[in-house]
């Protein structure tokens, strides 16, 4: 590759500014130097990235594709430096944690804050993964530990109880369903649903549960997080199925929270970890003791 990181930064600046001179000022370079770098980048790639116009530049179709790649590249490099910084500053340890969406948005924030208050030099990289992927990833060494609620146990991992949770139906207090104390999934199938996006663990799980009944959920809106789901449900757009742990006390003023009368609604969150990790990494052991609220046996 006959270009370097500075060439990518120059292209990013010019593309975002829409002007060579403004891009040059942002990079603290002369416009002539920026023009040379852009031309060299285009020659190296064999494509035209920018269309030069009287009042600036516009991206070609190739330039649009290039811009998205460069943004991801620069962001990934920034994250790399952020991940390495604790080691440069003498951090005691670095922990990688994979967890499902439910745990990340409900249980883990307070537990992480409590652990880091007593271990301020530890750095934790937390990634959201599908529950069905987490066990295999931890067993393969891609993470130090994981939080799972679904899927079979992996034979190479130790499992420890973490948090109990359960699915509930939420509906606007104005809907007829709000008068029910308990429901089954079959009772909800005629309602329009607010759901997380396709591919998320919860969306897939609920679709499978409906499929087992020979039915489907009528998903009318998909949003990326639980607070958005709560707002839409409170507005009367539809109903939803969520973990009870994501419902704030203030949400209950505008929502009806209806229990499920089915065993699959129970959520047993567990920690999974390799036995050798527990034996060799005291800081991971200390982290797990914070999560479970109890000392681990020797």
Alpha-carbon Rg, integer: 25 Å
Span from first to last CA?
53 Å
The unreliable regions are none
Beta-strand residue percentage: 15-25%
Helices and strands: which structural class?
alpha/beta
Averaging pLDDT over every residue, what do you get? 90
Number of helices: 12
Number of E-state strands: 12
Helix content: 40-55%
What's the helix-strand series? HHHEEHEHHEHEEEHEHEHEEEHH
- Shape annotation: globular
> Major sheet: size, sense and barrel closure?
8 strands, mixed
Tell me what you see in this structure.
With 298 residues, this protein is α/β, with parallel strands linked by helices. The protein has helices at residues 5-17, 20-27, 31-45, 61-88, 101-105, 108-118, 131-139, 185-188, 201-212, 226-234, 275-280, 282-292, and strands at 50-53, 56-59, 93-99, 122-128, 145-148, 158-172, 182-183, 192-195, 218-222, 240-243, 255-260, 266-273. The strands form three sheets. Strands 3, 4, 5, 6, 7, 10, 11 and 12 form an eight-stranded mixed beta sheet that branches. Helix 1 packs across helix 3, helix 2 (20-27) crosses helix 3 and helix 6 packs across helix 12. The longest helix is centred in the first third of the chain and has 28 residues, at 61-88. It is globular and about 70 Å long. The model has no long low-confidence stretch (mean pLDDT 90).
């Amino acid at each position: 590759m006959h270009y370097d990181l500075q060439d990518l930064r120059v292209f990013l600046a010019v593309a975002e500014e829409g002007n060579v001179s403004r891009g040059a000022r942002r990079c603290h370079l002369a416009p002539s130097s920026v023009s040379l770098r852009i031309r060299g980048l285009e020659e190296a790639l064999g494509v035209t990235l920018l269309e030069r116009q009287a009042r600036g530049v516009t991206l070609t179709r190739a330039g649009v594709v290039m811009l998205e790649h460069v943004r991801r590249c620069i962001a990934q490099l920034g994250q790399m430096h952020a991940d390495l910084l604790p080691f440069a500053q003498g951090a005691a340890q670095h922990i990688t944690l994979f967890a499902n969406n439910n745990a990340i948005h409900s249980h883990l924030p307070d537990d992480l804050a409590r652990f880091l208050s007593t271990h301020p030099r530890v750095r934790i990289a937390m990634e959201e993964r599908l529950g069905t992927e987490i066990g295999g990833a931890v067993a393969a060494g891609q993470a130090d530990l994981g939080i799972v609620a679904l899927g079979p146990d992996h034979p190479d991992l130790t499992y420890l109880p973490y948090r109990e949770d359960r699915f509930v139906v939420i509906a606007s207090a104005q809907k007829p369903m709000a008068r029910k104390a308990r429901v089954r999934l079959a009772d909800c199938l005629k309602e329009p649903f607010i759901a997380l996006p396709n591919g998320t663990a919860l969306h897939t799980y609920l679709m499978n549960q409906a499929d087992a009944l020979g039915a489907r959920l009528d998903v009318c809106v998909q949003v990326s997080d639980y607070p958005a789901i709560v707002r839409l449900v409170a507005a009367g757009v539809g109903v939803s199925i969520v973990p009870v742990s994501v419902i704030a006390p203030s949400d209950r003023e505008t929502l009806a929270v209806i229990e499920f009368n089915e065993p699959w609604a129970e959520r047993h969150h567990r920690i999974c970890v390799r036995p050798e990790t527990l034996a060799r990494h005291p800081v991971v052991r200390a982290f797990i003791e914070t999560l479970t609220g109890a000392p681990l046996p020797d």
